[in-house]
Amino acid sequence: MIMELSINIKYPQLLKLAKQLPYRDKKKLIREMEKDLIRMNRKRTNRQDSHYENDAEEPNELQRLLLKGPIMSDEQFNQLKQIALADYK
Fold this sequence. Notes:
Layout: H1 11-19, H2 23-46, H3 61-67, H4 74-88
Protein backbone atom coordinates (compact mmCIF):
# COMPACT_ATOMS: atom_id res chain seq x y z
CA MET A 1 0.00 0.00 0.00
CA ILE A 2 1.36 3.41 -0.99
CA MET A 3 0.22 6.50 0.85
CA GLU A 4 0.86 10.07 -0.16
CA LEU A 5 0.75 13.08 2.09
CA SER A 6 0.87 16.64 0.91
CA ILE A 7 1.11 19.62 3.25
CA ASN A 8 1.32 23.31 2.60
CA ILE A 9 3.73 24.87 5.04
CA LYS A 10 5.23 28.33 5.03
CA TYR A 11 8.95 28.94 5.41
CA PRO A 12 8.81 30.26 9.01
CA GLN A 13 6.95 27.12 10.10
CA LEU A 14 9.44 24.89 8.29
CA LEU A 15 12.34 26.74 9.90
CA LYS A 16 10.76 26.38 13.34
CA LEU A 17 10.41 22.62 12.79
CA ALA A 18 13.99 22.30 11.54
CA LYS A 19 15.27 24.11 14.63
CA GLN A 20 13.65 21.44 16.80
CA LEU A 21 15.72 18.66 15.22
CA PRO A 22 18.46 17.00 17.26
CA TYR A 23 22.03 18.10 16.52
CA ARG A 24 22.91 15.13 14.28
CA ASP A 25 19.75 15.53 12.21
CA LYS A 26 20.44 19.25 11.78
CA LYS A 27 23.95 18.46 10.51
CA LYS A 28 22.50 15.86 8.13
CA LEU A 29 19.88 18.34 6.89
CA ILE A 30 22.53 21.01 6.32
CA ARG A 31 24.73 18.60 4.34
CA GLU A 32 21.78 17.53 2.18
CA MET A 33 20.73 21.13 1.55
CA GLU A 34 24.30 22.13 0.65
CA LYS A 35 24.51 19.24 -1.83
CA ASP A 36 21.17 20.24 -3.30
CA LEU A 37 22.23 23.88 -3.63
CA ILE A 38 25.47 22.87 -5.33
CA ARG A 39 23.54 20.68 -7.80
CA MET A 40 21.10 23.51 -8.49
CA ASN A 41 23.92 26.00 -8.94
CA ARG A 42 25.75 23.73 -11.37
CA LYS A 43 22.61 23.25 -13.44
CA ARG A 44 22.00 26.99 -13.53
CA THR A 45 25.57 27.89 -14.43
CA ASN A 46 25.47 25.31 -17.22
CA ARG A 47 22.37 26.90 -18.73
CA GLN A 48 22.92 29.96 -20.88
CA ASP A 49 19.58 31.55 -20.05
CA SER A 50 20.03 31.04 -16.32
CA HIS A 51 17.33 32.82 -14.31
CA TYR A 52 16.75 32.50 -10.60
CA GLU A 53 13.32 32.27 -9.05
CA ASN A 54 11.71 35.44 -7.76
CA ASP A 55 14.11 37.55 -9.86
CA ALA A 56 16.84 37.15 -7.22
CA GLU A 57 20.35 38.20 -8.16
CA GLU A 58 22.60 35.57 -9.62
CA PRO A 59 25.64 34.77 -7.49
CA ASN A 60 28.81 36.62 -8.39
CA GLU A 61 32.05 34.89 -9.35
CA LEU A 62 33.27 34.57 -5.75
CA GLN A 63 29.94 33.14 -4.58
CA ARG A 64 29.95 30.56 -7.40
CA LEU A 65 33.51 29.58 -6.48
CA LEU A 66 32.57 29.17 -2.82
CA LEU A 67 29.46 27.13 -3.68
CA LYS A 68 31.60 24.71 -5.67
CA GLY A 69 34.24 24.45 -2.94
CA PRO A 70 34.82 21.61 -0.49
CA ILE A 71 32.61 21.10 2.53
CA MET A 72 34.10 20.64 5.99
CA SER A 73 33.72 17.13 7.43
CA ASP A 74 32.30 16.58 10.92
CA GLU A 75 35.77 15.65 12.15
CA GLN A 76 37.30 18.85 10.74
CA PHE A 77 34.48 20.90 12.26
CA ASN A 78 35.03 19.33 15.68
CA GLN A 79 38.78 20.00 15.48
CA LEU A 80 38.13 23.64 14.54
CA LYS A 81 35.61 23.97 17.35
CA GLN A 82 38.12 22.59 19.88
CA ILE A 83 40.79 25.02 18.69
CA ALA A 84 38.37 27.93 18.88
CA LEU A 85 37.21 26.95 22.36
CA ALA A 86 40.80 26.54 23.54
CA ASP A 87 41.62 30.05 22.30
CA TYR A 88 38.52 31.42 24.01
CA LYS A 89 39.42 30.05 27.47
